[in-house]
Structure formats: structure tokens, C-alpha cells
Amino acid sequence: MALSRKRKIIIGASAAAVLALIVVISIFASRSDAPEVTTVKIETRPELRSTVTASGEVRPIQFINLTSEVNGRIEQIYVNPGDQVTRGQPLVRLDPSQLQSSQEAQAASVQAAYSDVQNARTQVLAAENNVSQSQQGLTVAESAVAAARQGIVTAQTNVDRAQVDVNTAQRELRRTTELVESGVENRATLDAARDRVEQAQVSLRTSQAQLQQARIGVQEATARVNQQRVAVRDARIGVERARSSVASSEARVNQAQAVLRGTASQTSKATQLSPLSGVIADIPARVGQFATANFQSTPLMTIADMSTINVEVNVDETEIGDVSVGQPAKLKV
Description:
Blueprint: H1 5-30, E1 56-67, E2 72-77, E3 84-85, E4 90-94, H2 97-181, H3 187-268, E5 271-273, E6 278-282, E7 290-291, E8 299-313
Antiparallel strand pairs: 1-8, 2-4, 2-7, 3-6, 4-5, 6-8
């Protein structure tokens, strides 16, 4: 017998009420005074990143094309392309035989220049000694002139004294002659007076001769003084020439030393050293090749400083929007 619609509704509502009652009773039966804690796990999705990959070229900011600084045949190359080198590290060695020969020849020139300087200094000492001797000779000659002039004074005094004696003897002779003529004195007294006149005249002539000799002595002494003055002047000129020779020799020594330093520097450049730390990029030179250092220097190798580089890459136009300034980038060589 089929149930009516109304009865079905009543039965369903009754069943729902009973079920609700059962749920309420079970809830109150399971309640406790302790608080309930619920732990929830939150899962975070990984961040999605877009990577742009592109190829390009790595170029060093600084690189050096090392060329030969001296002429010579390459004996040894110490590095290979790709090697890491440091500043001052030997890279290439050229045959130093010719450079060493030039250095030895220049060293001999320096020694010869030193010998010239020593000889010139010896000449200066000799010239200075000559000046000293000439000066001493001049002093002696001037003293002789002074003595000769004093001799003139003495001789002139003797002449004057002898002249007085002659005059006195002549007066006595005249007086004695008058006395003899008047008969007061005898002939012996007259003869004695004449003898005194002659003696006085002889003394006068002797004194005059001595005066003349003294004057000649002064002239000779003056001539010697002049000669010594010329000798002193020549000796001083010799000193100046010797000193000039020393200066010239010292200048030649300095020049020879400068050339020797240049030659030694050239010899040291037979071994080329790395001017910077970096990587050997290329070595066009070969062992046995003759390197030149003229207007067209021989290229030896290229050294790149990889501490600071530029990287140029080609980014596809579809990815250029994903690239911006300041983004980190990874480089793989």
C-alpha cells in the first residue's frame, strides 16, 4: 500500500530530528575542559625564475702586445698560450752574445776613460808644482833686484865719497903747489899731494865702475824677474789646461758610463719579462726566429689582463624584455 506524500514528509522529519538529537548528545558527551589546538601546515610554492642564456665574447680591458726591445735570435720561449703569468716573470730569451760583447767593449772604454782622468790629474799636480817652483824663482829674482838696487845705492855713495876725496886731494895739491912755488914746502910734499890726487881718482874710477856694475846687475835681475813672471804665467796656463783636460776626461767618463748603462740595459732586455699579470693569449714568435727592435719590432706574444674584463653577448629579441641593468649573471668560458 503506497504511503501518501504527507506521511513521507513526517517520517523524514522525524528521522532527521532523531539524528540531530543523537549528534547533540554525542557532542556534549565528548566535551572536556582542555582547549583544543589545531596545527595547519602551510605549503609554499617555489619561486619561478626565468633564465636567459646567450653566447658571446670575453674581452679583456687591458692587454699588451709584447714586442722585442733588442735585436737577437730567439733562443727560448718559456710559456705557452693560455698560461697564467705574473708581473716580472721571464717569458722569452734572446741570444745575448752580441749584446754582451758590446757591454764588455764599453766597459773597457770606461776603464780607459778613468785612466785618462788619472793622467790628467797627475798633469794638474805637475803643473801646480811648476807654478810653485816658478813662483819661488820669481821671489828669488825679486829679492835679487832689491839687493841689486841696494848695491846701486851703496856704489853711488862710494862714488860720491871718492869724488869728495878727489876734490879734497886736488885742493891740497893746488895749495901744496903754491907753497912749493913760494918756497915754503919742498918737492917731496908736492909729490905726495900728487900721489893722493891720483889715488883718489883711482878710487873714484873704481867706485864708478862698481856703480855701473850694480846698474847692470839691476838690469839683469829685472830681466830674470820678467822671465820668472812669464814662467809663472805659463805655469798657471798649464794648470788651467791640465784642469780643463781633467774636466774633459771626466766628461768622457760620464759619457762612457752612460753608454755602458745603456748597453747593460740592452743586455738585460735579452730576457723579456712580463709587464703585467695575466694570461698568454697568443704567441706568434718562434724559437730560432731573429727578432728586431727597429721601426718594425718583432711581435713576441700577447698578454691579456683577465682581472677586469668586458663580456659581449647576443640576447634574442624575444628574451630582451627579461634582461635589466643590475641583474646578476653567470659566466662560463
